[in-house]
Amino acid sequence: MVKLYRVMMFLIVTIMVVGCAAPNVIHKDYTNQQITISTGGLIDEQQFYRNYGNFILDHFPGIEINVSNTDNSNTEDSNKVPIDLVVLPWNQFAQLRNDDYLQDVTSYVMRDRFDLTQFSDSMVTAMKDGDEGLYGLASRANVDGIFYNKDMFAAMQVDDLPNEMTWKELLHIAAQFTGEPFGIESLSLSPEELLLNMASLLFDSAGTAVELPEQQWMEALEQVVMAHQLGAVTAGMGELFIEEKAAMYRGMLVNANRFATEASFNYGFVPEPVDPANRDVSQSLYFDLVLAIPKESTQQELAWEIIKTLMSEDVAEQYNIQARNINSGAHISTLKSKMYDYADLSLVPFWEKQIVLSEARYPASISDSFIGELYTILQEQLQLAIEGQLTTEQCYMAIKEKVTVAFDKEKLREFN
């Protein structure tokens, strides 16, 4: 019996010692391994390392990263450079996917049982080519919206901002606050920019004609001119909002860091106004740079491991810590466990709408020269209308005439 007791005690102690010992974790050494990552020249090397590179170096010790500025939108140029992984904006992603430049990673997902359901459904859908293929993943999203002073709204007996509204509806609310406090403060709501948010320039498929739909433009012009005449819209970077001299502020989510410490009132945050013709599509959320693997990559396995790491819960938590610094931006993880709140603000309404690959406002064939001239025309004619020197109809006719002339010059420029 004593011997049996001693044997049992020996086994128990052995199990406790072995079970409690720290596991012998072996980190793979990636010394002498290189990977070439293209940013398309749209972010500098410092931004790349802050947002992606440093996380790669942390999880792949010893790896050497070659950052390339190859223009990913030029598939011929891209194929000449041995790129292993691309980090690109989603308009470039869509083009390269359509050009058959990117690797379908579905086989890697299935092999590794990589759970796509843990991510935003809209993100995964946007990365696919219809119902087939998965050509990239986005680890983060950017968020724009409207901050509003809930205390000021209550004092003025104005209802809280809804989670869905058009620009027309927002300007109607802003018009209830005129002068000081102003209705809405923003750096990106100049008369011309606001007008282009509400009215469309329609280019034909060949890029040879441009149209300004009269009813749409007349209504938008009237609302924009009136909003600026009443003082419902003003330029600023949030100071007026903090000082309670503006009831609303249009800007990026990162401003929540600042308002949390400097604002002495209760505030809310709702999505950007929607397009009345596409109410189900979000105008507030857009995915950050997309991670994808070129078909010609010689390091596809390593590139896939890097993508999985950048999509992980661990890196998502590091992004959240990084986002609390106002100087680094406020990117939201696309992980469902991380994407619904930020700085005590609920982001649930932002994710309720479809998020689609955004189309450029102008065809690729349109030059910067024409766009610059367009903004000058809108700025000059709108200012005349705001000052009362032009009626809405006169303003529309002047804009239409001058834009037509500018576009005729644009067509001539293409032939020369």
From TrEMBL:
Subcellular location: Cell envelope
Top-rank lineage group of the source organism: Bacteria
Pfam families named in the record: SBP_bac_1 (PF01547)
Keyword terms: Signal, Transport
InterPro entries referenced in this protein's UniProt entry, alphabetically: Bact_solute-bd_prot1, SBP
Protein family per UniProt: Belongs to the bacterial solute-binding protein 1 family.
Protein name in UniProt: ABC transporter substrate-binding protein
